[in-house]
TrEMBL record:
Alphabetized HAMAP family for the sequence: ArgB
Residues annotated to bind substrate: G43, G44, R65, N157
Class of the enzyme per the UniProt entry, highest EC level: transferase
UniProt keyword terms in alphabetical order: Amino-acid biosynthesis, Arginine biosynthesis, ATP-binding, Cytoplasm, Kinase, Nucleotide-binding, Transferase
Species in which this protein is naturally found: Pasteurella testudinis DSM 23072
Pathway: Amino-acid biosynthesis; L-arginine biosynthesis; N(2)-acetyl-L-ornithine from L-glutamate: step 2/4
Entry-linked Pfam families: AA_kinase
Protein name (database record): Acetylglutamate kinase
Taxonomic lineage of the native organism: Bacteria, Pseudomonadati, Pseudomonadota, Gammaproteobacteria, Pasteurellales
């Protein structure tokens, strides 16, 4: 079975019960199956909380967090430190053979700044899968924070969706984007099991898919095209469905290329 990359957002880290549910399902699943699994996480909530404690302003451009040089250390501390180690500690306490990483470890990915005005913000591209493949073959559960490293050795803040897509491409894995939504809903608020590009465009035009879901669906569609197969958007809120999700069943919405 193909490896699976699970992308989890910062809200999960802020919801202890949800984190418990996900890792319990993972622990149960791994006892019965030998599917290789990688977790890639963001942590916007953790970053915001830390910035607030330190009385630092949060500036954005086109919805993206501006990360000046004098703030990147704080962002790295929040994402690669607090968020990563919180997840790691919980996973280890549940007997999951977890290891905490960031996108630069083993030159897994290469970060490239895409807008100087955003500061230490970058996209990443797949680079060297050796370390990740070795960890997976040794039955580790890698937990990767969305902090990257560019060629100049600068630490960079990376969008967690984009980080997860890159890791999935790096090891040719299936990708599930976990959040607090059940999937894409139709006009009657019913979950749509599968969607393609044409259907997505129509739903956006009809104002059925709006706001943040447009970004999420477009990111999943881009990933599906890159990977050449469906990408799932699903919720971590239903512990009873998580095991089925890990087995490849559609419990949210599958976005097809």
């Amino acid at each position: 079975m193909r490896a699976l990359v699970l992308k989890v957002g910062g809200v999960l880290l802020d919801t202890p019960q949800a984190m418990d549910n996900l890792l319990t399902a993972l622990s149960r699943y791994r006892r019965q199956h030998n599917r290789q699994i990688v977790i890639v996480h963001g942590g916007g909530v953790v970053v915001d909380n830390l910035m607030k404690k330190l009385n630092l302003p949060v500036a954005k451009k086109n919805g993206l967090r501006i990360t000046p040089s004098d703030q990147i250390d704080i962002i790295v501390g929040a994402l690669a430190g607090i968020a990563n180690k919180t997840l790691l500690a919980k996973a280890l306490s549940m007997q999951l053979n977890a290891v905490g990483l960031f996108l630069g470890d083993g030159n897994m990915t290469e970060a490239l700044q895409f807008d100087e005005e955003l500061g230490h913000v970058a996209n990443v591209t797949p680079n060297d899968p050796t370390l990740l493949k070795q960890l997976l073959q040794a039955d580790f559960l890698p937990i990767i924070s969305s902090i990257g490293l560019d060629q100049q050795g600068r630490l960079m803040n990376v969008n967690a969706d984009q980080a997860a897509i890159t890791i999935a491409k790096l090891i040719d894995a299936d990708l599930v984007m976990l959040s607090d939504v059940d999937g894409v809903l139709n006009a009657d608020k019913q979950r749509i099991p599968q969607l393609n590009a044409a259907q997505i465009a129509q739903l956006i035009e009809d104002n059925v898919i709006t706001d943040g879901m447009i970004v999420k669906v477009n990111a999943a569609l881009e990933a599906a095209k890159d990977l050449g197969r469906g990408v799932d958007i699903a919720s971590w809120k239903h512990p009873d469905k998580l095991t089925a999700l890990l087995s490849g069943e559609i419990v949210g919405t599958r976005i097809n290329p």
